[in-house]
Write a structure and sequence with these properties.
The protein has 723 residues and is of the alpha/beta class. It has a domain of 109 residues. Helices cover 35% and strands 17% of the residues. A hairpin with a 2-residue loop joins β8 and β9.
Length: 723
């Protein structure tokens, strides 16, 4: 038995989101404010039903619809439609969670109360809808009417006029529900059995909410939920008392309580431990009685104890878990010097945080499995959420954690010995190091977008379905992401560049283009392989600028220096893949900027530059750059010619060629020859050498890159709403 998927509606910005769960680990990725935390909150809130909803949990896209219901309620009685009291009127505006549980053969009896129809049910999936809705619509209507009538009466008074006509509560139905405990008083979570056969994948049509309400929360005996949230506040204890922080000592204590056996299950080792505690108690009793003998005797001078008053007896009550309470219970031994130990506050915060998370997982595991010793039935599904485990962890610790967390949750003989017990772990992260060791199959990408009313909503993409049957591309992209540690899944936008020179220099152009406030990831992919990312880019819908070299060649395939009117074609696979049937150089040069945009992707390649080689030339000449390097030099020609430019590495090569060449054509031919033959010139060295220059910040981006950056800014500023 396991959770197959959930569908969240109308909860914060999750207007209509379908999330498929992996068998073991499911990882939520995406940029900030994309809805990952909201998804975790929705699942926890509806399954446990212990949290207090506010109107902020209602999707902002539905506030106007709620007010429309209120307006219809306030019409004259003669116009009132009794259908407005039907609870189903709220189905499309209130938060809800559809949860589907997948079953193995022989597990059907555990969910017999959730089977809608024995005649139609196929015995593999059951579905439950949790919906936060009015308890009684008539009572809600009456209370709202009374509040509005009171406000209306006040508005008819002179005092209200004299007070400059202030706005009175409630302005509308949303205003009424925000006030005090109104929402809690008139709303509750209700549970329904839904038809799992209508669970249609990533974009299911919402089936109607049934009429029959379940008597109680059906998840109580099916799903145990534990969570480690990002706001766990495991902070540096410097200057704080033990009561101010969640120390490791306390967590060890909690773990012991969770894993402690019943007395009937004590082993020989447990008895030996208890004997040690008993002897410690006895020794402590003797010492404390002696130490407090004098003050206890003095108390008799104030007639205490008197008649029938209990006498004072000091006794130690040391329990095993109490040993862990003191700060010094957890100490860290210096490597190679076991006698040299330090209290836990003196160890690194990151290390303690890693231990803390693992201790929490151990505690979750033990408390869940310990129920087999209790009278109540253990839940067959253990759902564990960990929000942003990377907080305070360095890169290596992040990678270790994600590989071991699930193992820790399952490392128990009871869990291993009962295959019907299922653990599912859900992580949310912003760290490329966390996802580095993971497969795309377990990732769920949260993406932001604006709805038709220009309000932010979130959608979720199952990355396991990105490449279909193309295993070669899937293997390449997965490995590339792992090896480069790229932050593809966490950026606001991505720029894919050809090589090292662009990787080094393009970030310098971002701030100049007004992109400094956005998280833009620049990733080197090489022009031959960038097209492999197309399926992933389209699936997650991230704003993408692809900076590609035009790579002119003869139709037969031989590379040539770029030129118009020669029948040349592009040899760049990325350009040919995205701009299908537009591989002619002349065609590419004549393209409008809008024609280089495909949905969320903009293709940028070299375009002709007007160059005036010397002051003696009356007219400028058109130069068709071949690659990023010559385009950059022609764009910043005077900067590269200035006497103050240092001569280091590849910059020396450029300076020498510029000095001896008498025309732009001659310069371009020499640079082309060096780039093509890879002697005397390193692209990476060229870019790095520019970092030494004082004039580095004065470098201008080539026109084709600048235009691409301007499109990217416009796209991000408009939240992708432009076409």
């Amino acid at each position: 038995m396991r959770i197959g998927s959930v569908h969240i509606r109308n909860f914060r910005k999750l207007k209509n989101c379908h999330i498929e769960f992996a068998e073991k680990e499911t990882v939520f990725v995406g940029a900030n404010n994309s809805g990952k935390t909201s998804a975790i909150s929705a699942i926890v809130w509806f399954v446990k039903n212990t949290e207090k909803f506010t109107l902020k949990e209602f999707s902002a896209t539905n506030w106007a619809k709620i007010n429309e219901i209120g307006e219809k309620w306030l019409k004259k009685p003669s116009e009132f439609d009794e259908k407005l009291l039907n609870g189903h009127l709220w189905d499309d505006v209130v938060p809800s969670l559809d949860l589907w549980i997948e079953l193995e053969d022989g597990e059907q009896y555990r969910v017999s109360h959730l089977i809608p129809s024995l005649t139609t049910w196929k015995g593999k999936i059951v579905g439950v809808r949790s919906q936060y809705q009015p308890k009684d619509t008539r009572k809600l209507l009456t209370a709202y009417e009374e509040a509005k009538e009171k406000a209306t009466k006040l508005e008819s008074t002179e005092e209200w006029e004299k007070a400059s006509r202030p706005k009175l509560f409630p302005q509308d139905l949303c205003d009424f529900l925000r006030k005090g405990s109104n929402l809690k008083d008139f709303f509750e979570v209700k549970y329904y059995v839904i038809d799992a056969e209508k669970e249609l994948g990533e974009d299911p049509g919402a089936q109607a909410t049934p009429d029959d309400v379940l008597d109680s929360n059906p998840f109580t005996e099916l799903i145990r939920v534990d969570a480690i949230l990002a706001s766990r506040e495991f902070s540096d204890p410097e200057g704080q008392t033990d009561n101010d922080i969640d120390t490791l000592s306390k967590q060890f204590q909690q773990y012991y309580k969770a894993s402690r056996k019943a007395e009937a299950d004590l082993t020989v080792n447990d008895l030996e431990l208890l004997a040690g505690v008993f002897n410690a108690n006895r020794t402590y009793d003797q010492q404390i009685t002696k130490a407090f003998e004098a003050p206890v005797e003095e108390l008799k001078n104030i007639n205490y104890p008197g008649f029938q008053n209990p006498s004072i007896t000091l006794r130690s009550k040391i329990q095993i878990e109490e040993v862990m309470k003191h700060e010094s219970a957890v100490q860290f031994a210096i490597h190679g010097q076991e006698d040299l130990v330090l209290p836990e506050k003196y160890n690194g915060l990151g290390y303690r945080n890693l231990i803390s998370i693992y201790l929490k997982l151990l505690e979750f595991r033990e408390r869940w499995s310990a129920q087999t010793n209790d009278d109540k039935t253990i839940e067959p599904i253990h759902l564990v959420f960990i929000e942003e485990p990377e907080a305070h962890l360095h890169a290596q610790a992040q990678q270790v954690f994600v590989k071991k967390a699930y193992e820790v949750l399952c490392n128990n003989k009871i869990i291993k010995g009962n295959p019907w017990l299922t653990t599912q772990l859900v992580l949310s992260t912003h760290s490329n190091h966390v996802v580095n060791g993971l497969d795309l199959n377990c990732m769920r990408y949260f993406k932001r977008q604006l709805n038709d009313d220009n309000l932010p909503v979130s959608l979720v993409a199952n990355l396991s379905k990105t490449f279909g049957t193309d295993e070669e591309t899937k293997r390449f992209v997965t490995r590339y992401i792992r090896l480069t540690h790229c932050d593809f899944f966490f950026a606001d936008a991505v720029i894919l560049v050809e090589g090292r020179a662009e990787k080094i220099l393009v970030p310098n152009f971002l701030a100049k283009a007004g992109l400094g406030s956005y998280y833009v990831s620049v990733i080197e992919v090489n022009g031959r392989h960038a097209y492999r990312f197309r399926d992933l880019i389209e699936r997650i819908g991230i704003a993408t600028l692809i900076v590609a070299d035009i790579d002119a060649s003869h139709p037969g395939g031989k590379s040539v220096l770029t030129a118009r009117g020669m029948g040349y074609v592009t040899g760049n696979w990325t350009i040919k893949n995205w701009l299908q049937s537009k591989d002619q150089i002349d065609t590419l040069f004549s393209m409008e900027a809008r024609d280089k945009v495909i949905k969320n992707v903009r293709i940028a390649f070299q375009t002709p530059i007007e160059v005036k080689w010397s002051d003696t030339e009356e007219e400028s000449k058109e130069i068709c750059p071949y690659t990023f390097e010559d385009a950059l030099v022609f764009t910043n020609l005077e900067l590269f010619r200035q006497n103050g430019l240092s001569k280091k590495g590849a910059a020396t090569t450029i300076a020498n060629v510029l000095k001896r060449c008498i025309s732009a054509e001659e310069f371009q031919n020499e640079i082309y020859d060096k780039l093509k033959n890879s002697y005397g010139f390193s692209k990476a060295d060229f870019a790095i050498s520019l970092l030494y220059e004082e004039c580095f910040s004065d470098l201008k981006a080539p026109a084709y890159i600048q235009e691409g950056l301007e499109w990217l800014k416009s796209y991000l500023d408009s939240d992708g709403s432009q076409k």
